[in-house]
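PROTEIN DESIGN WORKSHEET
SECTION A - STRUCTURE
LENGTH: 253
TOKENS:
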């Protein structure tokens, strides 16, 4: 809809920048490299590959190595496979992706999708972050196209504390010793002046290091002395395929 309303009518020029979040999607750069290499053959083929990778995202985003799948998609789309393989082997597209990520980070972006609106009539820029409805795009695009300043975005209301962070959620569950009303395991004095909520992933190397090296010291000096109430919440990341199962197993012990 945005393409029909703004891009194909010549009102907006759309530029796609590579910004794979490696910490969340470690194999995503391979998709960006494959798309750039297909793009060497023509801009039209780039956009076809771009759309195909999003349409078939669930088929490749969790593969340990999606290289074969990505080249297969390119082959189905009619790419010159010899040229594609030579481009990937050359390796220079990875540097382009890395540079694009660095430039995005320099602009303050840390999530995707992120959009930067820049009017050709002045140097003012405006940011929009997240998969937003068309109306949010129009709120920025329409005034800029008309040579006007977009209205200021309404300030969001301060978020309300979730139930698990409120006193009633942190209160001990009389039916489950060691658990609070919100269902989270805790240790320490429930009347402590400080509450620390830990979000952890059983497959996370940093979490392991904390649990085995730092947590015993924290428990001895702060938790067992009644200074801190320590609450554990599960936070399995998608990049760790067994973390959610481990969290369930821990709860079912």
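SECTION B - SEQUENCE
RESIDUE ASSIGNMENT:
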């Amino acid at each position: 809809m945005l393409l029909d309303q703004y891009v194909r009518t010549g009102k907006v020029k759309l530029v796609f920048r590579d910004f794979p979040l490696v910490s969340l999607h470690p194999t995503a750069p391979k998709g960006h490299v494959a798309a750039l290499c297909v793009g060497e053959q023509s801009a039209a083929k780039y956009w076809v590959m771009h759309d195909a990778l999003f349409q078939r995202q669930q088929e490749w985003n969790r593969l340990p190595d999606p290289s074969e799948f990505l080249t297969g998609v390119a082959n189905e789309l009619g790419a010159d496979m010899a040229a594609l393989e030579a481009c990937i082997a050359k390796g220079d597209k990875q540097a382009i992706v890395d540079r694009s990520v660095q430039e995005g980070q320099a602009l303050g972006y840390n999530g995707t999708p992120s959009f930067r609106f820049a009017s050709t009539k002045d140097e003012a820029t405006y940011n929009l972050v997240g998969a937003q409805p068309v109306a949010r795009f129009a709120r920025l695009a329409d005034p800029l196209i008309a040579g006007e300043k977009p209205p200021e975005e309404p300030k969001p209301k301060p978020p309300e504390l979730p139930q698990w962070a409120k006193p009633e959620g942190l209160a001990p569950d009389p039916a489950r010793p060691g658990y609070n009303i919100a269902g989270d395991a805790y240790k320490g004095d429930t009347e402590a002046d400080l509450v620390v909520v830990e979000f952890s992933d059983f497959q996370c190397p940093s979490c392991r290091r904390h649990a085995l090296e730092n947590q015993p010291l924290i428990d001895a000096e702060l938790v067992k002395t009644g200074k801190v109430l320590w609450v554990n919440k599960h936070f399995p990341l998608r990049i760790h395929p067994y973390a959610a199962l481990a969290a369930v197993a821990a709860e079912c012990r």
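SECTION C - NOTES
DSSP finds eleven helices and five strands in the chain.
The first helix runs from residue 2 to 7.
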